[in-house]
Amino acid sequence: MFAVIKTGGKQYKVAAGDEIEVEKLDGDAGSALTFGDVLMVGGDDGVTVGAPVIEGASVAGEIVGQKRTRKIIIFKKRRRKSSRRRNGHRQALTVVRITDINAGAAA
């Protein structure tokens, strides 16, 4: 069984046992969380697509840890103007292990 969830402005296709990296969520390692925005659920009996979400469906997971991506450098230069700007950014991520998919009324 798989599901498509929405979190952090992005969509992720997940199945039980998957580990995904999502935008930073509050919580410590080992704490449980629930994703309520389930857009699609699929399995052996077919696929259910929400409009826009499936009522009563949820995906349960547990936080594995918090981490940050590698640093990216933003460099802007205006030619012939002696103007340049250098900036860096590291995005904060949360690693989540999917434990269960509840299809709700769709199953």
From TrEMBL:
GO CC, one annotated term: cytoplasm
Position of the signal peptide: none
Pfam families in alphabetical order: Ribosomal_L21p
One biological process term in Gene Ontology: translation
Alphabetically ordered keywords of this record: Ribonucleoprotein, Ribosomal protein, RNA-binding, rRNA-binding
Alphabetized InterPro entries for the sequence: bL21-like (IPR028909), bL21-like_sf (IPR036164), Ribosomal_bL21 (IPR001787), Ribosomal_bL21_CS (IPR018258)
Gene Ontology terms for molecular function: rRNA binding; structural constituent of ribosome
Record note on quaternary structure: Part of the 50S ribosomal subunit. Contacts protein L20.
Stated role: This protein binds to 23S rRNA in the presence of protein L20.
Stated family: Belongs to the bacterial ribosomal protein bL21 family.
Protein name: Large ribosomal subunit protein bL21
Lineage: Bacteria, Pseudomonadati, Pseudomonadota, Alphaproteobacteria, Hyphomicrobiales
Gene that this polypeptide is encoded by: rplU
